[in-house]
Amino acid sequence: MRKEMLVNVSQPEECRIAILEDNILEELYVERASQNNFAGNIYKGKIVNLEPSIQAAFVDFGVGRNGFLHISDVEPQYFRQAGYDPEEIKEIMDGHVPGADIDDGEEEAPRKRRHSTRPRFKPPIQEIFKRGDEVLVQVIKEGIGSKGPTLSTYISIPGRYLVLMPALGRVGVSRKIEDDKQRRVLRQTLLELNPPKGLGFIVRTAGQERTRRELSRDMAYLLRLWKVLVKRVKNTPGPCDIYEESDMIIRTIRDIFSEDIDTILIDEKSAYERAKEFLNFVMPKHVGRLKFYDSREPLFHKYDLERELANIQRRVVPLKGGGSIVIDPTEALVAIDVNSGSFRTDDSAEETAFQLNMVASKEIARQLRLRDLGGVIVNDFIDMRKDSHRRKVERSLLDALRRDRARTKILRTSPFGLIEMTRQRVRPSLKRSVYEDCPCCQGRGLVKTSESMAIEVVRVLMMACQQPRASRITVRVNEKVAAYLNNRKRREVMQMEESTGVVVQILGSESLFPEHFECDCRDGEGNLIPLTFINEP
What we know:
Layout: E1 3-8, E2 14-21, E3 24-32, E4 42-51, E5 56-60, E6 67-70, H1 86-96, H2 125-128, E7 134-141, E8 150-152, E9 157-158, E10 162-165, E11 171-173, H3 180-192, E12 200-203, H4 212-235, E13 240-243, H5 248-256, E14 263-266, H6 269-282, E15 290-292, H7 299-302, H8 305-312, E16 316-318, E17 324-329, E18 333-339, H9 349-371, E19 375-380, H10 387-401, E20 408-410, E21 418-423, H11 430-434, H12 450-464, E22 472-478, H13 479-488, H14 490-500, E23 503-509, E24 517-522
Parallel strand pairs: 1-14, 6-8, 11-12, 14-15, 18-19, 22-23
Antiparallel strand pairs: 1-2, 2-3, 4-5, 4-7, 4-13, 5-6, 7-8, 9-10, 10-12, 16-17, 17-18, 19-21, 20-21, 22-24
């Protein structure tokens, strides 16, 4: 299987990175220069507000938008401020530090809390912090909509092969490394490197089959970086920036590049030089796989990706052999429906449903990655009677999600044939990054009919005509609404004019969107009469 990484930076406003396997798009990363990307950054912030009712603090970390810090993301070392002695803190840490209830770590620096079977005590957040306190935080989730960024005091700094976690205090191995023998070897190698007491390290999946020297170099780099950050924290008053993640190109190469990627193509010279310098530093033997793309034909056009990217935003995704999946993101969850369409097998309805669901499960996992959808996801598969078929579809979906870098959790098929799951959401989805709500329909995807608008306009006119000084009312609406009013509602409008003596003029224009409505009411001298009681359609 040929695997390629394509980096498109020909336009300075946007960076796009695509991972292809045998010319099939499997992963996509898009970042805009105009969008603030805080995830992974470390800041020295100040507590500006405490909310005991939800056990959370709001932190000003210097970006103009306060972050949300929940008590579950507060490192127990801060509990000293609440008067707890070191032994009590140690007891809390044994059951609270991410990863403490499992015998390994997690690849991307476990920032979320883990659920342990042992009881854990958390002091009230109002006992730990007070307004004005300084706190070292890391952004673990971008702000979405009206919500600010989510913060954690569990700091994690990823290297190429290791992740430095100061709060962990021990060594661990990524859960994605499943070979027990290799895990023992990696753990022993890490212990032999004598990491400083009090600091924690986790071996990433990229650290598999790496030499002791390579791991040692990565540890030394992370330790040097941590010393610089500690000095910056001590000498700089908050709120301030302590550490910023690398740009998306370096970050993606660091986190995703592996020996099975045959080629990295970059279409911009300065970005190519930065990537080359990084590879020379961390993976010198793989520098030859990096190539500068200097053809006149745009990189993504050559690989026919522009059409694929356009299809990503469509609601309906066709499946091979017929059938489709329909993806509907909502405020609270993502609903995915599997439709059979023309998909058929020679056997029975049960076999048809099973085969279609198997195909759909792989495509669902792929679409979740490409669209970067997160939160609660409900998959409505075709109903199957056989329990064995349901289990196979569940396993197929689980296997397809293994390559996803975001954390996922899947439940068993419900009695209604639904498979519920969650997917880690770090930043807004790709669609939210590219699109904005339609000003015509306010994001509903629907607009009122001409009849509905005409009824509401007449209702407003009845109120406006009752104004004591009203002499002339001018209404501006979409052309179709105006035609409906002038044709089907003309008698009602004339009756209003005759009973009140007010002249009503209805103007329509094609350039106005379907729900546009203006009502201009004036007296006999041409002075505007404000209609404050009107809630315009």
